[in-house]
Write a structure and sequence with these properties.
By secondary structure, the protein is of the alpha/beta class. The chain has helices spanning 48-55, 125-128, 141-157, 169-172, and strands at residues 19-20, 26-28, 37-42, 66-68, 74-76, 82-84, 91-93, 99-101, 107-112, 166-168. The chain has one domain (19-182): Peptidoglycan recognition protein-like (Lysozyme-like, 3-Layer(aba) Sandwich). It is 17% helix and 18% strand. The strands form three sheets. It has a six-stranded mixed β-sheet with strand order 1-5-4-9-3-10. Strands 2-6 form a two-stranded antiparallel ribbon. It has a two-stranded antiparallel ribbon with strand order 7-8. It binds zinc ion (ZN). Zinc ion binds next to loops.
């Protein structure tokens, strides 16, 4: 655990958020960087408390804009105007056909609470991409309902993010990340 850092409260970007829990792991967006991507994650952690603690720990240096609990509750940890640290080493092609490296600066990140196939605890780096999906924890109906509403809301307010650039973490960091996983159902996105 790192030192306790006092982070200013902020107003949620959407009324869909039921609780704001400010994370210190953030920075300003730089000139020339704009929101074009929305990255979906699975937490690969069992409980909300541990996951949220990690996402607010300055030593861990990870964060996300939104977090969806198994009950479908939406929390916001970082305001959309700031960068959150969720994508890491990653790449994808932007609206102008340019390959962007380090997608944090260009994206919003949503963490969806789920163990994936790692029911015994978070995976090591080696385990991350070598897994059997048959025993993965199912995402809940409440999470898909919350996700669909949140993504529609984000896309309506952010004209440079389009459905084609709503991507899984595994799609932008394929040799490193497996979330949100083979068991994540994407059909809500286009229905
Ligand atoms: Zn991820």
């Amino acid at each position: 655990m790192g030192d306790v850092v006092l982070v200013p409260m902020f107003a949620a970007d959407t009324p869909l958020v039921s609780r704001v829990l400010p994370s210190p792991n953030t920075r300003e967006r730089k000139a020339g960087e704009r929101l074009e991507f929305l990255i979906i994650h699975g937490t690969w952690m069992a409980g909300d408390d541990g996951a949220l603690q990690r996402l607010c720990d300055p030593v861990a240096e990870v964060s996300c804009h939104y977090y969806i609990t198994r009950e479908g509750q939406i929390l916001q940890l970082v305001p959309e105007r700031l960068v959150a640290f969720h994508a890491g080493v990653s790449k994808a092609v932007n609206s102008e056909g340019v390959e962007i490296h380090g997608l944090n600066n260009w994206s919003l990140g949503i963490e969806v609470a789920n163990c994936g196939p790692f029911l015994d605890g978070p995976p090591s780096l080696e385990q991350e991409t070598l897994v059997g999906w048959t025993r993965a924890e199912p995402y809940t109906e409440a999470q898909y309902v919350a996700l669909k509403a949140l993504v529609a809301d984000i896309l309506a307010r952010n004209p440079h993010i389009c459905v084609e650039r709503v991507l899984g973490h595994n799609e932008v960091a394929p040799d490193r990340k497996s979330d949100p996983g083979m068991h994540f159902d994407w059909s809500w996105l286009r229905s």
